[in-house]
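Shipment paperwork, digital attachment
Item: protein structure file
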Amino acid sequence: VPSGTTDLIVDRQSIPGLSTEMLAKAVMQDSVLDGYLTQFSKATDVSLTTWFDSPCVGGVRVRRATFTMPVPQDVPAAIARLAAVPETSKATLVLGYFARSPDELLIFLQQ
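Attachment content:
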């Protein structure tokens, strides 16, 4: 959080009234990741693991989501003739969370 402001900066954008603590609490809730996947990825059959300590990086908490999502059908005709494009695909997303300090939080997604 830059000096002189209480707004949280997310990807260089200020979100008025959102604190690091509020964001951290929201990320830990199942409904946030589930909602993100169903709303933005149009995912179905979402399954979430509980949060666990990363076996690779100390201090990082991770969780995994598996789900089914629609596959874009707007492929070039030449590719469509060579390979069938499925309507849906199974996918896995890993969400990571690292709180370096009460004012510094890193959240990342890998799909």
